[in-house]
Amino acid sequence: MKIGHKLLSVLLALLLINIASFAQDVLSFVNPNIGTAHSRWFFYTPAAVPYGMAKLAPSTNGSYGNLQGWEAVGYDTRHTSIEGFVHFHEWQVGGISFMPTAGTLKTVPGALDKPGSGYRSNFSRKNEIAQPGYYSVILDDFKIKAELTATKRVGFHRYTFPKSDSSRIILSIGNVQGESGPVTDASVEMIDDTHFQGYVITYPKYVKTYDEGGRVAMYFFGELSKKPLAVGALNNEKATANQKSSKGIGAGLYLGYNTAESETVEIKVGLSYTSVANAKLNLKTEAEKLTFATAKAAAQNEWRTSLGKLKVTGKDNADKTKFYTGLYHALLGRGIASDVNGNFPRHDGSIGQLPKDPQGKFSYNFMNTDAIWGGFWNITQLWALSYPTHYSDFVHTQLEIYKERGWFGDGIANSNFVSGVGTNFVGLAIAGAYQAGIRDYDLSLAYEAVKGNELGYKNRSVGSGKMDTKSFVAKAYVPFLDADRTDSTGSHFSGSHTLEYSYSAFAAAQFAKRLGKTTDYQQLIQLSNGWKNIFDSELKLVHPKKADGTFIDKFDPLEAWRGFQEGNATQYTFYVPQNPKALINQIGEKTFNNRLNEIFETSRKNAFGGGKTIDAFAGIQSLYNHGNQPNLHISWLFNYSSAPWLTQKWIRAICDEFYGTESIHGYGYGQDEDQGQLGSWYVMSSLGLFDVKGLTDFRPTIQIGSPVFDQSVVTLGNGKRLTIKALNNSESNVFIQSATWNGKVLNQAWLYRDELMQGGTLTLKMGNKPNKNWGAKLAPPSVQ
Asked: Where do the Glycosyl hydrolase family domain residues begin and end (predicted)?
């Protein structure tokens, strides 16, 4: 049968409309403004693509810096003025701000509480659009429309000016931005009528603390669509007309234009962490033929593809907004740091080179990444489910660090160690990748590094964390130190360290077992039971011990920061993910269920941790704190304690009540969304899938909860498809009555992950009263 060209064109057009309609629906459910009160530096960067180096965003207070190195900074929904649009937003990495202005030349952004004190401009959120891959706003003071978009390594600006003979673009290069820390050097210069280049070098707080002497360098090469009529230089003190370069702290340029009404100036900015030449190459390779409009279209299509791997349907659009905004943040954080030619920054200042595969493509990307502390209960599970290439990139990045430094670095900023928690779960995350089937790296090297991370202590770098490994290996617990420090003899955070090291030793043990390293396995699996050494059988709580083996006195189970980092004994007692049944037996199953259920009943009254206090640490002295990492698995522990219906109840309550759709109530109230972790938790839990063990078991399992959505269709990382159906699902029908897996009756609240990854259909019949028999008889294996 022949189809006429005209009819074929119509059919294709209709098909494209339908695809675009679905894709636009996905984008419409992402709201980057959710949770933008007290949000972290990476969090609000709408003009970016998944895992991009170029993360462009408006800044309301980025120039204020970051006293302790980690606090909320950048964009805050409570602010009403913008000081510039910044290109780099990564953990401990920030720099290069542009700002279009008009009228009297001002050389500094000015203060939030002093209108007119600088070139910042007021704006109304009615005139602001934030979508994945695109941002626009009207700058009220100048009547300028600013628009942003990006490719992986190139930022795009489009400024629409009013009629004016004093239109300008400020290039602020040598000034503090966000988490970047002090600027140590900077340069910007016009190299011809329409091209500029330069760099900024910073010394972030966490580099100074954990990798003294390191630096973070950012390079750029930009192209203007229109030659400026005037160019002048800026520094911290003054503006100098007719000067086309500026160097040092405070370096910047201003570009002057006479503009007609609605005249636009577009800018493309190639970025790099290695050199100006590579910034130029990144620009040429990714953006030479792109306009702002085509770059925006490409960025949003890339988001459609990535977000579209998970398709959820249900009656409540707010749930979809939570889901896709959480997924957006998970795909936004931890951006690439390598160039199009495979160059990447090394700690010693040299330039590394990525290898190519047999097809001539680079085998992986090098990354900048926040610490993976708690990431095994959210983001690595999401990566392993549908985005395994990024999990692979993470593993390869850490192995590159190991080859250069001899240690994993946990948090990484341009190969500098920037872990702020003093522990190091990289080995656990790599062991989890291996057990999840991600194995495209040197296994011998990976195992050597994982083992060293758990057992090694000689000449250990402070930035690699775990400075108390020696004491843990010797005693199978970490002794408590009164002083606020960690060294080879113990730690002030000895309780949480003992629990964390026990868990990571388990992960390494299972890795060793897989590779036939029997002796290592026996040592590591014995260490994985170290948590028992600080379990107080009278209190049925974990209780830090001193070096002489006695429990510390003046013990308050709700006291944070004494024995426990970012938490307390009540919260951390449940931190035995490697063997939940052993913990349940120590406490007693009935007592365990009653206590944990009461914790959630009480915590529900306080928004599951932090109440309405806008502070990242608001919940660390509470019974349960969903706003921080140590607690994120415990709502799933009922699957191990013969009460899976309570897991179903509480994960749905947390999804419904802790997570919001407002600018202030997004992830709790100002909680600690470390580069996509809390968003990832929502994604996994709302699908009804989770692994308490973080994929580290010899044969990982996936535990089943209560899906938020009527149906979810997941494109798995291997290309197969998983469908999850929740029949008779509603806000009140949160309890599983019965289940089938690929048509066969399923009476347990878990599946082996390798079975799940073959694809198929999980069907759950839901109801408003718990079926206390379903899933209760056969718990997921605690010991394999």
From this structure: 278-768
